[in-house]
């Protein structure tokens, strides 16, 4: 695949086969030639879990201290007072059966969705559309809740949902390339701490198989799992990262 001149220039700034500390990886990303837009920075994990087993499904939410750097459009499935609460909290789209029908018609103009428990029987009709897009509200992720106003505000402030795929891969946004290194480090640590916390007790062998930090258009920089929290003096023991 022809990646282009900018990708080649970025790749030449570090050794693609070497593993680095998070501090070093963030430094490399900040040195990459700039794209014509503000690239997203993403942390990519390959985990030693078997998602086919219910007790090894890694799924949850993480709140980024400095947000994602982009405006998130939130849809709220709610009725009555709860619909008004969601709207006042900043939801971009609010509705009940009417919103479900819009989704079924293919009109999905939002990045995240929340719902109150009483309308989930309606929302379930759109599961085949929302599910594959990662937009289906879920109680475990806190997106099905009677406190819908808080759910909307949390997402607007930078709360992300994550879920491991069938191959054990997990991708989580940690910000924008325009963020300074401190903000990227803070967001990075929030994600890492959450993924370490989510390690299932039933998972055997090495938990963090590979960890890579990348930008939208740039190459991935490999991070040493044994130095997963090394962002300037704060480290986690090798045994904890395995």
The level of helicity is: 25-40%
**Count of helical regions:** 9
Coarse structural class: alpha/beta
Radius of gyration: 19 Å
Q: Your description of this structure?
A:
- This protein has 242 residues and is of the alpha/beta class.
- The chain is 31% helix and 20% strand.
- The protein contains nine helices and nine strands.
- The strands form three sheets. The chain has a four-stranded antiparallel beta sheet.
Features:
242 residues; alpha/beta; 9 strands; 20% strand
Question: What secondary-structure arrangement, pairings included, does this model have?
Answer:
Layout: H1 5-11, H2 22-31, E1 40-47, E2 59-63, E3 74-77, H3 80-89, E4 93-95, H4 97-104, E5 112-115, H5 120-123, H6 127-130, H7 148-157, E6 159-163, E7 169-176, H8 181-197, E8 208-215, E9 221-223, H9 238-241
Parallel strand pairs: 3-4, 3-5
Antiparallel strand pairs: 1-7, 1-8, 2-6, 8-9
Helix pairs in contact: 2-8, 3-7
